Amino acid sequence: MIECQNIGKTYFSEAGETLALKNASFKINDGEFVAIVGPSGSGKSTLMHILGALDTPTTGKFLLDGKDVSELSDDELAEIRKKKIGFVFQAFNLLKRATVLRNVMLPLVYADVPAAEREILARAALKNTGLSEEHFFHLSNQLSGGQMQRVAIARALVNNPSLILADEPTGNLDTKTGEIVLSTFQKLNREQGHTIILITHEHDVAEHADRIIQIRDGEIVADGNGHVKRTAEVSPSN
User: Fold this and answer.
1) Could you tell me the strand order of the sheet in which 67-68 lies?
2) CB atoms < 10 A from the CB of 154, how many?
3) What domain range includes position 188?
4) Which of 81, 142, 170, 184 could serve as 138's disulfide partner, Cβ 3.0–4.6 Å?
5) pTM for the model
6) What string of pLDDT tens digits covers the 238 residues of the chain?
7) Is 108 a domain residue?
8) What CATH number should be reported for the domain holding residue 118?
């Protein structure tokens, strides 16, 4: 699915050049659960933007399903983000005064999915995250942090993307709630085969993945298997 070939990224400004990535090379196959871990300023956010087709490398190649992303037009990149990639962010990015269902249906509106199908698909995505149906018509600002992140995951799933890209998804959650969210990613990967890339600065979060790629000072310094934890069974309504 994903192949990075000696990717480099340089940012140019009046103050000079900033080298954010240096010769990053790795592959991620369909169905993998991979964590990219590194401290602040390591280059992981830059790498996330490239993997999410939000930016292109300065040097090297990023291949997504065999296509060189740097050769695609802005419209083609937008189409990839709409159909192939589901994004989950630390800040949830939900519409506060919209119901849970309306938040999850929003990507389907942009994808021109017929109105009659939107609620069916949204309900199915929410059930996949384990959120109780009693919350479907709540406003998003009436939910707990863990519930909001489950809604955000459902929104990322609703278009059935081949890749879920999660940027610090537990960053605004307490430890117990973070475990619930991470167990949701594990379930989506193991039971439904979703490819998941988890971006984090926390090694204990990264260990929930099956493979950990470590980045430091813009370079890949390690790439190997993680130590997957068993997550506790906790009520999905949290």
Assistant:
1) 16-28, 2-13, 59-64, 67-68
2) 27
3) 29-42+85-225
4) 142
5) 0.88
6) 899 999 999 999 888 899 999 999 999 999 999 999 999 999 999 999 999 999 999 999 999 988 998 898 999 998 888 889 999 998 899 998 899 999 999 999 988 899 989 999 999 999 999 899 999 999 998 999 999 999 999 999 999 898 999 999 999 899 999 999 999 999 999 988 999 999 999 999 999 999 999 999 999 999 986 544 444 344 444 5
7) yes
8) 3.40.50.300
